[in-house]
Amino acid sequence: MSKPLYLGIATSTGDGRAGGQARTDDGLLDLSLAIPKEMGGPGGATNPEQLFAAGWASCFHSALKAVAAQQHTRVSDSAVVAEVQVHATAEGGFSLSAALHAELSGVDQVTADKLVEAAHAICPYSNATRGNIPVTVDATVA
């Protein structure tokens, strides 16, 4: 592996996702966690899947903008929605799946599809999950 460009550090304390805290080493992120109501918890606070979805959506969006710039393609407006789902396994554990939805303006559908596929090829979150969890990506031209 090459030398890291950046190291992100976060610590979970208390009861983890079941009422604990998550905090980054620089203190810029400091929040309470809760199990979502849909999973039998109280809700009312964020959960790891939301954090993962926010990170992936942001990273993928940056990758999308980077590949558009590399290909000299002007996108007038864009957004990325990441959906991270939790599934129960037959063994009593849990697994994840994800869907990434890119919304773009200023390009046609074929170009949007190509940009999304190129972004999926370079995004670190996409590369980390590739082959590990089911992931779908799609583009909508607005």
TrEMBL record:
<comment type="similarity">
    <text>Belongs to the OsmC/Ohr family.</text>
</comment>
<dbReference type="InterPro" id="IPR036102">
    <property type="entry name" value="OsmC/Ohrsf"/>
</dbReference>
<dbReference type="InterPro" id="IPR019953">
    <property type="entry name" value="OHR"/>
</dbReference>
<protein>
    <submittedName>
        <fullName>Organic hydroperoxide resistance protein</fullName>
    </submittedName>
</protein>
<dbReference type="InterPro" id="IPR003718">
    <property type="entry name" value="OsmC/Ohr_fam"/>
</dbReference>
<dbReference type="Pfam" id="PF02566">
    <property type="entry name" value="OsmC"/>
</dbReference>
<dbReference type="InterPro" id="IPR015946">
    <property type="entry name" value="KH_dom-like_a/b"/>
</dbReference>
